[in-house]
Amino acid sequence: MTAITLNGRPRQVAAEATVVDLVAETVGRPLGPDGAPLDGGRLGVAVAVDAAVVPRSRWRRTPVAEGQSIEIITAVQGG
């Protein structure tokens, strides 16, 4: 297991977890290797690892490492 901070809270994740794995778990939807939802809908999510934005095209290739701080931000309509 790997200890990280996810959205400001301590969290344990599988040692082989990637950003796409965390996003899929957080939003509760299966994602393809490109980070797009398999249901064809829109995702509306941005990810930052240690304050650096990770483009969706790199989610699958970005491993989660011990001690990282990860923010997963979901867009919400309204005001």
Keywords:
79 residues, Ubiquitin-like (UB roll), Thiamine biosynthesis protein ThiS, ThiS/MoaD-like
What does this structure look like?
This protein is mainly β and 79 residues long. It has one helix at 19-27, and strands spanning 2-6, 9-13, 45-49, 52-53, 69-74. It is built from one helix and five strands; from the N terminus they run ββαβββ. Strands 2-1-5-3-4 form a five-stranded mixed β-sheet, with helices on one face. Strand 3 and strand 4 (52-53) form a beta hairpin.
Query: Strand tally, please?
Result: 5
Largest sheet: 5 strands, mixed
Shape: globular
H and E order: EEHEEE
The largest sheet has its strands arranged as 2-1-5-3-4
How many domains, in number, for the residues? 1
Radius of gyration: 12 Å
| Strand proportion | 25-35%
Mean pLDDT, all residues: 93
Q: Would you tell me the structural class of the helices and strands? A: mainly beta
In the CATH hierarchy, what is the superfamily?
A: Beta-grasp domain
CATH topology: Ubiquitin-like (UB roll)
Helix count from the secondary structure assignment: 1
Quaternary:
single chain
Distance between the termini: 38 Å
Q: Please identify the top-level CATH class.
A: Alpha Beta
CATH architect. name = Roll
Low-pLDDT segments: none
Short account of what is shown:
The protein has 79 residues and is mostly beta strands.
